[in-house]
User: What shape does this take?
Amino acid sequence: MEAIFGVRAERLTQDATPVFSMTYPEDLAGLLSSIQQSAQALAPWHREWRVRHPERGELWVEAQSRPLPDAEGGIRWHGFVTVVTERKRLEQWASSTLKELRDLREALDHHAIVAITDAEGTITYVNENFCRISKYRREELIGQNHRILKSGVHPPAFYTGIWRSISGGNVWQGDICNRARDGSLYWVATTIVPFLDDAGVPFQYIAIRTDITAERESAAEIRRWADAFEHCAHGIAMGDPVTNRLIACNPALARLHGSAVADMVGKPIADLYPPAERPRVEAHLAESDRLGHARFESSYERADGSLVPVQVDLVTVRNEQGRPLYRIATVEDIGERRRADAAVREATDQLRAVVEASPIPIIVTDLDTRVLLWSRAASALFGYTEAEVLGQPMPIVPPDLQEGHETIRDRTRQGEHLGSYLTRRQARDGRQIEVSISTAPLHDHDGHGVGSVATYLDLTEGAELRQALRLSEARFGQVFARSPVGMMLIRVRDPAVVEVNEAFERIAGHARPTWWGTRLDTRAQRPARRCGHACGSGWRRKAAWRTPNWRSGASTAPAGMCSSRRRR
Assistant: This one.
């Protein structure tokens, strides 16, 4: 006691004031209260507090004592007091360190994805961030190996290298692609730290990760845009709206100019155009800065002085305050397009001239059967003028034939050429006109279907003649079948028998089918039963009646009257 408080113990039993006077004021109230409580309850007393030693400075002391009543009715304390300054400092350091570790762990848990595994790689701890990104519950992960997260993106050698490094006591850092429970992929920047025992052998590993999926996707998108910029067939340039100079350009623009990319950067934008075009180009640059975009056609001046026709599309990009940051321009060589347009115009003019000069009605339509060209002959046949029908759906299809017309349209869209087919069309005055139509698809220079061209042949007069012919054939058929005179139809070019009537069958004594196809030059001179003459060359008449075996170019001969009898 004397070494601590500078007072002999015997004196302290009479007066504890020296102890209290050396106690730190902020500790004194608690000290007195604890003594009083112990004395009242006669309970063991234990207390740690600080005292101010005149030579040693601040000391921590620990007192353990037991209050016992004495014979005079007072309290005597039996115990000891020990200086515990070093222990308290160690405890404070340990407490502070533990708090720092807890704070660090809390910070890690808030920011990072944390997992701890044992020496074999079995998961022993995961934080909430790990569960959230992997979409596994904690109980599904504890006891598992990290193989549960393998994505298939990395080869086996990748994981072998990681394990070789950390099992050798080394820290590993890198990016890993994992597969979540729902099958989705995510990327994490990973640091794996081995914890080593006294022998330097890892006994556990802590893996600290951060989610970099968004960064990876952004980097991939940037790479895609960079590839598009680098490999685009059209020229792309970035310009400074303040200096009106090129900031960057792609190889296509440099090739268009006949220069290297490095030579293009920093070049005044106006120098890309011939002097006569520069004022107009500068006006379009100002238009883009004012409106946000502009499009124009101009001539582009190459390094060798030659000119290339180009189409320029400009976009001005602004900052949050609305000030122009830079311009992006796409530059397309339209020389080939202009030549193609000129060729199309020439071909169109030629086609229009042919259509207008043709005596046959010609109608050109697009893929939706809207009229593109309407010849004078079509106007004469159907009564519509070109001005009435241009750009309009076909007006000449009768309502009852609309479905068939759409079928023809679909077949033509598929590239089918349709030869002559018979149908009806309706004139402006409502007349129904029988026509023969031939339709062919139209294609552009790339081979894409753009419409169809159709020619129309008026069959109204021919249809009347065919109707009369069909009536005549029907009458002849009745005469042929009912005639008491034996008759046969002979194809002139062979000659061969096409048909015989029933009277001929009775006269000849042979069934009708046996005569069908018989060539008369091999079966000639066959004697007829009734006349005894060699029959086979009778009078001829162009056949008009179509029997089951009829073909054009036949003649008839009456079997019951040979030529010798006719002469008599």
